[in-house]
UniProtKB/TrEMBL annotation, chain A:
<dbReference type="InterPro" id="IPR045913">
    <property type="entry name" value="TBC20/Gyp8-like"/>
</dbReference>
<dbReference type="InterPro" id="IPR035969">
    <property type="entry name" value="Rab-GAP_TBC_sf"/>
</dbReference>
<protein>
    <submittedName>
        <fullName>TBC1 domain family member 20</fullName>
    </submittedName>
</protein>
<feature type="domain" description="Rab-GAP TBC">
    <location>
        <begin position="51"/>
        <end position="237"/>
    </location>
</feature>
<keyword id="KW-0343">GTPase activation</keyword>
<dbReference type="Pfam" id="PF00566">
    <property type="entry name" value="RabGAP-TBC"/>
</dbReference>
<keyword id="KW-0812">Transmembrane</keyword>
<dbReference type="InterPro" id="IPR000195">
    <property type="entry name" value="Rab-GAP-TBC_dom"/>
</dbReference>
<keyword id="KW-0472">Membrane</keyword>
UniProtKB/TrEMBL annotation, chain B:
<comment type="similarity">
    <text>Belongs to the small GTPase superfamily. Rab family.</text>
</comment>
<dbReference type="InterPro" id="IPR005225">
    <property type="entry name" value="Small_GTP-bd"/>
</dbReference>
<dbReference type="Pfam" id="PF00071">
    <property type="entry name" value="Ras"/>
</dbReference>
<feature type="compositionally biased region" description="Low complexity">
    <location>
        <begin position="1"/>
        <end position="19"/>
    </location>
</feature>
<keyword id="KW-0636">Prenylation</keyword>
<keyword id="KW-0449">Lipoprotein</keyword>
<keyword id="KW-0472">Membrane</keyword>
<keyword id="KW-0547">Nucleotide-binding</keyword>
<dbReference type="InterPro" id="IPR001806">
    <property type="entry name" value="Small_GTPase"/>
</dbReference>
Amino acid sequence: MALPRPPPNDHGRRDCDSKKKRKEAEIYQALNSEPIDVAALRRMAISEGGLLMDEIRCKVWPKLLNVNTEDLPPPPGKELREDNKDYQQVLLDVRRSLRRFPPGMPDEQREGLQEELIDSILQVLQRNPQLHYYQGYHDIVVTFLLVVGERLATVLVEKLSTHHLRDFMDPTMDNTKHILNYLMPIIDQVNPELHDFMQRAEVGTIFALSWLITWFGHVLSDFRHVVRLYDFFLACHPLMPIYFAAVIVLYRAEEVLACECDMASVHHLLSQIPQDLPYETLISRAGDLFVQFPPSELAREAAQQQAERTAASTFKDFELASAQQRPDTVLRQRFRERLRAEERAKALLTTKPRTNRFVKLAVMGLTVALGAAALAVVKSALEWAPKFELQIFP
Amino acid sequence: MATEVESSLELSLSTSGTEPGTLPPPRSRIFKIIVIGDSNVGKTCLTFRFCAGRFPTRTEATIGVDFRERAVAIDGERIKIQLWDTAGQERFRKSMVQHYYRNVHAVVFVYDMTNIASFHSLPLWIEECKQHLFTNDIPRILVGNKCDLRSAIQVPTDMAQKFADTHSMPLFETSAKNPDDNDHVEAIFMTLAHKLKSHKPLMLNQPPNHSTVQLEAEPKPTMTCWC
């Protein structure tokens, strides 16, 4: 079941402009109301066009993260770069991150921003010793730096790092891997054929790793698309990026199914993200999927992915152990037999009742209008937001 | 006699999604090579140089695993060389990259000749690799990158050679960037590909201009011979 391609744009430019104007007014109204209407701001960040422009983002992003902009930390001193365990890695990654800056920016200006980027990252890490730097974190921080400037970026990223990004910043990436385990169950819900194909190819989920841990900042070259997605993710549940990743894979179902069913081909195809994705359609689609298949519903299957992999690797161990003892011909024969037996067993295991598919499709039809999806997502986001803690894992 | 390499090649074919009982479509053989080493040693540049034939203008930190491929002809046989370019940061190694060690036919360890720390990390990488591959018997080579930065060299060749000998690996010193040395990176990967194809004993010579480096140690008899 392929996703519908975006409809041809039949709105005139004037229509589009007036819509934008209206939305802008609504956003300012929400910002100026007393108390600030954060729910409305979330809705705006999710709905078509997101927060429209960086000027608005500077005002709204802090509200979405519940950050007080009056109370910014003092600029860092020189000692920041001394005895910081992550300094060398941060330096290496930032120095190499030329593509994150607008093309045509004078070198001098870019170099200044790179220094600010290093400071911003180190400051957050210094104030939160429980957080660990990962390659890709700099792709997130640079987005904030370019939109809101160094001092505000530091506080926003600090909040984000202790909430949305918390799992990526553990000492190990085990929790990140666990979040990636949500990807295949989501795909399975919508397109079982695609899911099965990808499982057969043993493609894994690492093609989506950089998408997830940089919120797509590492892979999208047009900055406007990046900030549009950040609007969306900032307003939503921390797991939304994995739904968006699933939506991209689903959108490319035909391409995936047309490729050779092996790890390399599928990994290669999927890791080259198309730059002309219909972002608004995909955002609304990700919202819908989140509503239909909330994380709580997928948690069990995600955990199962882990178990299946363990079983698979045990099998591999067995194979390799016997490789030490048996002639290859026998080994190969045994491998084939085991493989067939395993496939049969797998087929039994993965046959799930899909009786409620039509019910779900009906719901999908009802929520196709972005407004409905957005409202529902906002609701989920709000349920999570006041607690401000990650309870992804049961 | 069938070798480990052959059997693992066959594994990668037989697990590639064909239904049992049907023949896989005719396809060229694939050599899967994983490239590992510390951050910023030039793994991406080396693989890019080999697959695209030039030094990339701007490379960024690799997140997770990138994949590059090039088809070559060796003795008239069409072979696909797959290079799996991995993230250098330690945290990605354990839980992330593991999956991509599957059915690997060769390993390329890379260090930065201008960064001694990247050389000192090699034992860790070798250990890591052993854990993932469960065997000692697939071809491994050691590549010192950035040899064009002559004034900044921190890892002397004799030291690297000693290390390579201890670990029964051939050593290559090269530069993915140096335009005068265009085909040297090419020669390294092609030597490895020939090695994989012919399954002859490991006697890899440095390609021309670097004739100083030669592997002397034969694989120990206790190991399963991959050659």
